[in-house]
Specification:
With 207 residues, the protein is of the alpha+beta class. The protein has 2 domains: 52 residues, Arc Repressor Mutant, subunit A, CATH 1.10.10; 142 residues, Beta Polymerase, domain 2, CATH 3.30.460. The protein is 46% helix and 19% strand. The chain contains 9 helices and 9 strands. The strands form 3 sheets. Strands 4-5-7-6 form a 4-stranded mixed β-sheet. It has a 3-stranded antiparallel β-sheet with strand order 1-3-2. A hairpin with a 2-residue loop joins strand 8 and strand 9. Helix 6 packs antiparallel against helix 7 and helix 6 runs parallel beside helix 8. The longest helix is centred in the last third of the chain and has 22 residues. The relative contact order is 0.10. This is Transcriptional regulator antitoxin.
């Protein structure tokens, strides 16, 4: 089937979970040259440009920045402060969405928000899940990524750690297993500090 109408093309892309799509994706569906498709897309109000050759389908109910940010580079996932906000373990309202990837990519301004990319080696690229069309770090991995990259500062990581435990979101066994896989002395030292301070607080509350 040839999708000549832009709206038909957008509906087909969404049907296959492609809120973020390339000019090639649209060109193949429409069976039209990329130059022509690019011109058509640029005039459509539902389509927003991320960067050259890459677009997303805007929603009247508000754009899902998590979904958009995690699909710009493959493979990648959302982590750090953005993940803390996703799990509601910080009171901070973020404007910067941090993406972990094994590939380098320039920072992107998307409206009032910023999408930044942080590289990590393949051996430390794990601990994330796909939730609908969003790739997001588990809370355990988000904490460890933050300790590894020193982003955000330790006080915010501690806040996220404490709230994660209070809300029963954190699995300490998984946290320790992931820390071992990170193979970082710095991460282990900072994690020990987090766990030690948490134990001291619980002991004092018990008294």
């Amino acid at each position: 089937m040839i999708y000549n109408r832009v709206m038909d093309t957008l509906e087909e892309l969404q049907l296959h979970g492609k809120t973020v799509f390339t000019i090639n994706d649209a060109s193949m569906l429409m069976k039209k040259p990329k130059k022509y498709v690019s011109k058509i897309l640029s005039s459509n109000r539902k389509v927003k440009r991320i960067e050259r050759g890459l677009y997303f389908i805007s929603s009247s109910g508000g754009d899902n920045l998590y979904e958009i940010a995690s699909q710009i580079v493959f493979p990648s996932y959302i982590s750090l402060f953005a993940a803390f906000q996703y799990y509601s373990v910080t009171d901070q309202v973020i404007k910067k969405y941090s993406v972990i990837s094994i590939k380098r990519h320039r920072e992107i301004n998307l409206g009032e928000n910023i999408i930044e990319f942080r590289t990590m080696g393949r051996e430390r690229f794990f601990g994330f899940n796909r939730v609908q069309n969003t790739y997001i770090a588990s809370i355990e991995k988000a904490i460890l990524d933050s300790l590894y990259l020193n982003m955000p500062s330790f006080s915010y990581v501690k806040e996220a750690f404490d709230l994660s435990r209070q809300n029963s979101l954190l699995n300490l066994k998984v946290l320790r297993e992931y820390a071992h896989r990170m193979n970082s002395g710095s991460v282990n030292r900072k994690l020990s500090k987090l766990l030690h301070e948490d134990d001291e607080i619980r002991m004092s509350e018990g008294n």
